[in-house]
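Entry for the shared binder. Reason: the reviewer on the internal report wants the predicted structure included alongside the sequence.
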Amino acid sequence: MSADFATALVTAGGATVLAVVTYSLTKKREREADVRKERLAYYKEFVASLSGIIAGEDTPEGQRTFARACNNLNLIAPQPVIHALQAFQHETRRSRPSPSRERHDLLLSRLLYEMRKDLGVWPKDSRDFQVGLWASGVKDSTP
């Protein structure tokens, strides 16, 4: 009888451990998915804010929106994204004496590459990933 009891005890213990491990792994994946969703929202906000700082279309409100979006990334983005963001900010700051369009585009591409890498965009981008911003070309008619 004690062998039967030991077998039942081991079986029940194994089932309990398996249930706990499965629950823990499921919760971990759920938390990772939530963080990924939040990062995506912040990344979208950042990309949308770029429209407010494009040459010829920038506005004070656009600059403030861009600054907020950048600051929010410091909260949730991983280190490679933050490094790429800081390089982009350094290049695009208003006090820069002689900005380079080529360097701007290179650093923006690097930043968006790191964001896409963080999100696990599939298929994976190559290191020579390049993007460009598109201005509307609409003139502001407000006085």
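Summary line for the report: Helices lie at 2-49, 60-76, 79-92, 101-119.
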